[in-house]
Recover the amino acids of this structure.
């Protein structure tokens, strides 16, 4: 994992990745359920 000068703490990168994954997962589930609800 490349190190940026501003943060040498790996947990910052892990937290950022976790937030992105959670957001994508939540958005994906919501989108899927919305499409199912409309009968698609």
């Amino acid at each position: 994992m490349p190190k940026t000068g501003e943060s040498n703490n790996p947990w910052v990168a892990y937290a950022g990745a976790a937030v992105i994954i959670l957001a994508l997962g939540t958005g994906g589930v919501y989108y899927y359920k919305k499409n199912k609800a409309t009968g698609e």
Observations:
- The CA atoms of residues 33 and 39 lie 10 Å apart.
- The helical segments are 10-37.
- The mean pLDDT is 83.
- The chain has one domain: 12-40.
